Amino acid sequence: MRTFVHGAAVWGVACPQRPSRVAGVTMAGFRVRDLDTLRMVPHPAVTLLVEFGAGSPVMDYAAGRRQRGSVVAGPGLGSGGAVRARGENVECVQVRLSPAIARAVLGVSPADLDGAVVALDDLWGREASRLRERLSEISSWQDRFALTDALLARRHEAGPPVDPEVAWAWQRIVAGRGLVRVDGLAAEVGWSRKRLWSRFRSQIGLPPKRAVKLVRFDHAAHRLVAGESAARVAADAGYADQSHLHRDVVAFTGVTPANVAGEPFLAVDDIAWPSQATPAASPVSRT
Q: Is the pTM of this model over 0.85?
């Protein structure tokens, strides 16, 4: 387990030694004694948080709503800086799921999450509590990852896949870092723009244009964290100008590009998800 220090925050971070057996799944483990009001920055993946320690993470919404414990969040959670996490003695496995495989793994479409944080128990019932119990009984992080991965693989195999055309469109958006035209995607799969919008929204959880903006923002935000100038990022990431980047970052996070570069939610990625700036695209067909 490596240590991530950001200001007064000190986190223990563990990474799997082996990739998941399911393309589109990545994991990290966290141990945080005092998680002090962390801004949730929107990410183009479905996030599954399984807590098993003595403490429990808490998600606070700007509107006053609160969610505790193990949760599932759809892609883009936290837009506008509306969601923050906190807690004491938090120990958890965090899973990032490509939206193209999330329906199979979760048992519901990301669209059914309706942009909210949902208790994992509400989706998986007793299976969620058994997973937490087993994780708490295991002392090795690698064994915890293996246990979680085996469950995700079983659920993925049994669950309904998305349409191949939808999976392909998502792949293209991720591979292009958001620099694709939705009209072009529809033409390439042989669908009308309306049909692609409808199927993509219902199976991925976002309209195609929103997915394009989110993937582009995620790529730009990580470059800002890496220390690149806003002007350079705007030019390379496909924004019309620096003001366009500024508006997008504020819309997604509630803070300016200069401030988002210091967000611990993004800064920890170099340790927790070292090879992943944006979520892995899942294959069109299962292997």
A: yes
Return phi, psi of residue 236, to 5°: -85, -25
What are the start-end ranges of the E strands in the chain? 2-6, 9-14, 25-39, 46-51, 58-61, 66-68, 71-73, 83-97, 117-119
Q: Return the C-alpha torsion angle 149, 156, 151, 120, nearest 10.
A: 100
**What is the Cα–Cα distance from 57 to 248, expressed in whole angstroms?**
28
Tell which residue, 101, 115, 75, 121, has the closest CA to residue 218. 75
167 contact partners, CB below 8 Å, separation of at least 6: 100, 161, 282, 283, 284
Q: Which of 116, 109, 106 is nearest to 205 (CA)?
A: 109
Quick check: 94 pLDDT over 90? yes
- Give the 3-state secondary structure of residue 157: helix
CA 113 to CA 97: how far, in whole Å?
14
CA atoms within 13 A on the CB side of 26: 21
Query: 93 phi and psi, to 5 degrees?
Result: -105, 125
pLDDT tens digits, residue range 204-213? 999 999 999 9
